[in-house]
């Protein structure tokens, strides 16, 4: 019985010791990413120029646009009543196809996007008279938007407009 109890106590107690690793006991350039537990390093544990093997200079980084400009509204057009694009981004053409009817063709497929248009002058002049504007996808071109403008009485009328495409 005494031998059995002695064996039990030795098995339970065992001979365990703790291994303490310090920066002095690690050879330089031997730690790899697989050796570090996820979440084990914090931002304060890494030098500002220590990731990736070379320094990143702030002067080489460009301006980061807001999220809306970076992706959402990267395509727009300001079109005069005659169909000429006055200002734009991401379009290949703009034209008036008939009285109060316009097409704006972008440089990418915009079928899955949202369109927002408003009647508005292309310059700092007085805004145009009352009217309405409607937009839809252009059936003949996946890159196009069909725009229709009307006068106050509901008749087709050439009106300048602003168009933004949100994708």
Describe the protein in words.
This protein is mainly β and 167 residues long. It has two domains: 2-49, no CATH class; 71-166, no CATH class. 11% of the residues lie in helices and 29% in strands. It is built from two helices and eight strands. It has helices at residues 2-13, 67-72, and strands at 75-79, 85-89, 91-98, 101-106, 114-119, 132-137, 144-150, 161-166. The strands form two sheets. Strands 2-1-8-5 form a four-stranded antiparallel β-sheet, with no helix packed on it. The longest helix is centred in the first third of the chain and has 12 residues, at 2-13. It is elongated and about 110 Å long. The protein starts with a helix and ends with a strand. The model has no long low-confidence stretch (mean pLDDT 81).
Q: What is the secondary structure topology, with strand pairs?
A:
Elements (H helix, E strand, L loop, with lengths): L1 H12 L53 H6 L2 E5 L5 E5 L1 E8 L2 E6 L7 E6 L12 E6 L6 E7 L10 E6 L1
Fill in the keyword field for this structure:
167 residues, mainly beta, four-stranded antiparallel sheet, 2 helices
What is the compact description of this entry?
With 167 residues, this protein is mostly beta strands. The protein has helices at residues 2-13, 67-72, and strands spanning 75-79, 85-89, 91-98, 101-106, 114-119, 132-137, 144-150, 161-166. It has 2 helices and 8 strands.
